[in-house]
Protein 1
Amino acid sequence: MCETCGCGEALNHFHPDHEHLHDHPHDHADHDHDGHFHGEHSHDGHTHFHPPPVRTVRVENDLLAFNHALAEANRLWLKRQHVYAINLISSPGSGKTLLLEKTLQRLQGRIATAVIVGDLQTDLDAQRLQGFGARVKQIETVNACHLDAERVSQVLPGVINEETRLLFIENVGNLVCPAAFDLGEAERVVLLSTPEGEDKPLKYPIPFRKASLVLVTKTDLIPHLTFQRDRCMEALRRVNPAASIIEMSALTGDGMDAWIRHLEQAIRQVG
Amino acid sequence: MHELSIALALVEQVRRIAEKESATRIVSIRLRVGALSGVDAEALSFCFPMAARESMAEGAQLIIDSEPLRWLCLACQQLFTLDNNQPDQLCPHCGAPDHHLTGSDDLILESVEMS
């Protein structure tokens, strides 16, 4: 019997939801209509195919749902371990690794700290960060332009131990892609180095928009640059009026106290 | 640069939805991409056919509804767009100089047309 209309008769008929004539009884076990794919059913002992209807399914799913779910899992795991995680995002060469060297020096013996470093290739950054008492793990992303929650979740258990209270995730140097990927961090910090120019937040608004703290780094270079501090502050305020700003130079130590205070306050949140 | 990973995630998500719906072919896919999502619609459209190759989404049409970057005037609370993102421009509604960047970071799979 035809499942569409229920007929068992040997006659020509037309099904409104598929556009071909059935000639019953006939032999069309391997017939070909118009090249589209047919759902199989049976008419009086012979088999033929109806085209599945085209339909639209409403979804409204976040495309990065997989990453977000893993990021939430990381965040929960870190919270249970009493670890405050910071995702550091900036252009390549803005001073993330020097900042971490100086930060680890200051925290050594006081706050147990771990670092995950993302780079396309080499473990040079991880080598630089050895010797300050922190557990350091390099992720080589090879061609990937950003870290994602899955990669971070794979290395978390190896880099965090019971004492760890603070985790820095030094993201791949890139102001575009890392902004889209939540890693499960408690806080996102973006670095803007003075040689990059004061209008960078306007040209690359997304990472600044999503940061709770912006570090304006390499302030010791300002005398050698055309960097206009007021315009920089104005650009940051326009893009993200809620972000805190610390102006600093990891090299000279200017502004480091404010940064360290920020970290000390932050880890109090996680007990 | 990360649009290929997004396109691969999209194809995988669409495949799972189609399987649940017992569909075998994807006709079109509609996305909503916010200006602050970090995704370039053109790059995503370029990557999509590669990500969809040899999947049931091969040959499917990708429709992207882009949501623009907007500025919110702090004086009159009106939203407006600026040509070339020039920050020194004045609000076209009231002429005030102070405005903040707004926009969504949505990256949403809205609907899938399948058969």
Protein 2
Amino acid sequence: MFSATTVTSTEQRIGQALDELFDKRGAEAADTRIVLSAEPYLDTAGEALRRRIFLTRGEGGENLCLRPDFTIPVCMRHVAQGADLPKRYSYRGLVFRQRADGPGEFVQAGIEDLGEENRATADARALADSLASLEACGVDLDGLDVILGDQGLFEAVLRALGLPEGWQRRLIRTFGDERALEKALDALSKGAEDILSELDPQLIELARDREEGALTRLIRARMEDAGLPPHSGRSPGEVASRLIEKVAVAEARLGADALSTLEAFLSVDCSLAKAGERLGEVSGPAGLDLGRAMTVFETRNLALQAANVDLNRVRYRAAFGRPIDYYTGLVFEARLNGASDTLAGGGRYDRLLTMLGADRPIPAVGFSLWLDRIGHCLDKGEGAQ
Amino acid sequence: MSLTLAIPSKGRLMEKALATLDSAGIVVKAGETRSYRTSVEGFEGLEVLLLSASEIARELRDGAIDFGVTGEDLIRETIAEPEEAVEFVSRLGFGQANVVVAVPDSWVDVSNMEDLGDVAGAFRARHGRRLRIATKYWRLTQSFFTRQHGIQSYRIVESLGATEGAPAAGSADIIVDITSTGSTLAANHLKVLGDGVILKSEACLIRANAVGRDPGARSMGDELAKRFGV
């Protein structure tokens, strides 16, 4: 079934309500084009996006796409114009994605908050404003599940457990992808001896003895044999040091205590008001010091309260995250109770702006609202105030 | 009433496809030189077309032909939901080749997809760009890397020929390509990862899902499928 752009009267009404709210919150409306270069999307969000966006080629062979979201063009616009920071940008307009369960075009609105060095304040503002936006649309906040996760805490637990760096990287990569995380934990608990059976014994010896120089020479000779370009891609030294690390990781063991502490942490799922206490119950007996990450978490909770967010309304799930590498800390989502569709979602993406060409790191956090889903819920009388 | 079947238009694939049809009692004579039409004996109303293997996959996807003989790799690469769009009537036992992930053999620290995921994850921070994969199989690559192995950070460089040369040419770091004996990969100093076989492909008889075909043509199609042991 095809349907033309059907911006319903409900969507129009909530659109206007949001424009007013965004204006009141001091966000500047940012216009962006609909036809965009696809490169920044494929480069930052990854190739997985390729099948979900509308991709075409320009006459010169360049990849173009129909705007799949606003975050990237809003950030690129900022990098190009170089406005003073901190700055909040708002947007509302059509985005285009291939999806099986709805039309390929729909309206999103949201705010991107760039350059606020006080991350707790900016994080709290993003979550508070997304809830205020839903309320302005006419959604009853009592009928919502709001879920919050924090990759920073997860990374701090891995560090505090003293896991080898190779393992930390592996687990961090899977954070937010439950199946992959489970698989990785399973592999860690079994140890990784069989990995070594795939390697040349001579190389294992050299790696065990940390003979980085000898390994590097050996690898360089192989690269030269293969005619690999010497100044692009992985260098011989890089391969050698990763091999040394790999052998060390394979021969290390994750103790049963460490594993059960990690599992206990990942299973924390409670109201944000009780999260500090629950995290203390996990980290205390294990003697873990979560250090700065815990301070960040608690400071943010205070900032949320200051922004009038009731911590009892928000659920903290330790395992909740997004497996995209530019997300760095806070992530959150709001859905109707028991429903699977996200009405609002956001998070902190401190790595994105440098990926998009900013000449220095710019802290960034934002959220977006799915106006078609919100409109649909309201029209059906679900979740309305 | 007629039914169309397309087979590869040249080389060993064509010969083997003709032999397969022959053993099912269908004798196909290629027409005059450079003609893509044929004369068919042994199945009333069957028209056999000679097309390129990749074109056969597209025509099956679009329902422009009823049957086709082509590689499973091309079907899975060309069609988003192959199980819905087409039916695999029979695996024909020739044209065997694997679609594999291969990396430079000097990457002694990388022997499986887990290693590759680790390298890909750290690539941007070290080299200022994503890990690049040369391939003509972007759909298979993306589904294997992302869906099966949760690897997000890489770029696909589309390659239309001599993919195995891409790492030495500096246009990509690793490749996803089809190989039957592995000798081309070895000659280019590439190794297949232990768990890097994406697909074990072979030539298959494929039937387009006959949406909108009339019952007559459908039962003719069923008759044809039966000749291949279904």
